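Hey,
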Amino acid sequence: MRIALVQQHATPDKAENLGRGLDAVRSAAEQGAKLICFAELAFEPFYPQRPSDGNHAGLAETIPGPTTDALCALAKELGVVIVPNLYERTDDATYDTSPVIDTDGRLVGVTRMIHIPDYEGFHEKTYYTPGNRDVPVYATAVGRIGIAICYDRHYPEAMRALALGGAEIVLVPQAGAVGEWPEGLFEAEMRVAAFQNGYFVALCNRVGQEDILEFAGESFVCDPGGNVIARAAKQADDILVYDLDLGRVADSHAKRLFLPDRRPELYAAWLGASEAAPRADEPPADTAVTLREITGETLRPILKMSDQMRPGQDRMVAPNAASIAQAHFNEKAWFRGIYADETPVGFLMLYDNPEKSEYYLWRMMIAGPHQGKGFGRQAIERLIDYVRTRPGAKALTASYVPIAGGPEAFYHKLGFKPTGEVHGGEIEIRLDL
């Protein structure tokens, strides 16, 4: 089966980028390619080079949508499988997404990036919602295809799951910059994944100088033995075309030795229990949340929670002590402890001004040990219930700092939308009641 990896530069002109991409598909098909893969965000600039200003949803598109419509028509015309990577928008979230289009032009599914990074030049947490489609393997006309989008390739759990799902080829759409990783690691990681899991890995990288990053190109293919068998040009547009013998998958070391000798009955205890089981003083995720007045007796644990934030989160919200002191001098401050059953898990404060019908979520935090359990969502829902009882309440506003690990996706899922205003570096958002 002949594969083609299309690495091409991108400009701010999405229509022009897509046009060149369609031409590349035709060129690859003329060379006999049956599976054609593109790099991450192939037809648009790499937006996460800088943090989002809160209006990023307008940059994304639906799937199906105009880009997939054009690619589906071309896949059917040429009888090829096409796997692009797009910035996807749904009703309530945005994703880094790879659609899979079969030879008959059908959109057979989408894979969404699961693990979202945030560091200099790659502020992806401010753009992408973590994927919710697991790691599917697609039975296409040319073979069983799995996808690990960029950052997901660093997670052995995802790469192994694709093998267990029967993948013969794992496509890795990537945005890898010049000098981003130590010499040799760019390929070594994928060589090991191919060897340990017994499939071909085809990594398709971006290329070209953009805002603050230069993408490296050098797309490559590894065989199930862990060997690099094909490599595209360095820092230049290229179409890498290569023949894959899928029969080598069944005869790989992984299929003959590693996978049959697995001990999955042990792994849940190793990997799952220690991460998932709550400590004795940690309420489980299904615990109901209430908002309670803070008294002299309950003050101390509320204050101590500010010392339990995850690294970097202290830049997102003031310490609870400062918030409560500020509330003492502001008659419009309404503040409560967030409790899961009888355990304090967080704090919130509302600017409550019924004279002007202004209701603003001033502060909100969930302590580190209690994050990821839905307590923050429940707390906001309780707050919304309260605000709806206030005179003239038509909206609840809030703001957030657009930094790594910030709450932008959290608020977006709750229905908050950017107002277009930025105050003191914070993005203002609004929820209509």
